[in-house]
Amino acid sequence: MKIIQPAFAGTLESSDLQVRIAPNPEGAIDIALDSSVQKQFGSAIEQLVRDVLSNMGVESALLEIEDKGALDCVIKARVQAAVMRAAETKQMEWRALS
């Protein structure tokens, strides 16, 4: 999926996260993560986000993520919603993440 416009999904409430996504003119995935559990889970959160982006076919995007302790299922859902909004699509090919 091609990211064509800025978009966001999520809130800054406890146990949630906010994902802001925009096109990246440099053609890469760039993730800026600010998490209340960054020391314990920062690398796992970033890897999960990269897995979701890969499964959705996103090859280029700028992401700013503010995490307030969200579970993996919430992280996946918020990233998917932000990508779909940024790509202006309403359909998604559902695949299970390993």
From TrEMBL:
Per UniProt, subcellular location reads as: Cytoplasm
Would the keyword Lyase be found if you checked this record's keyword annotation? yes
Domain of life, per UniProt, equals Bacteria
Where does the UniProt entry say this protein principally localizes? Answer: cytoplasm
Protein keywords: Cytoplasm, Lyase, Phosphoprotein
The record, for Pfam families, names: ACP (PF06857)
- Gene Ontology molecular function, alphabetical: citrate (pro-3S)-lyase activity
Q: Which residues carry this modification: O-(phosphoribosyl dephospho-coenzyme A)serine?
A: 14
Record family assignment: Belongs to the CitD family.
**Assembly information from the UniProt record:** Oligomer with a subunit composition of (alpha,beta,gamma)6.
Q: What function does this protein fulfil?
A: Covalent carrier of the coenzyme of citrate lyase.
Q: What is this protein called?
A: Citrate lyase acyl carrier protein
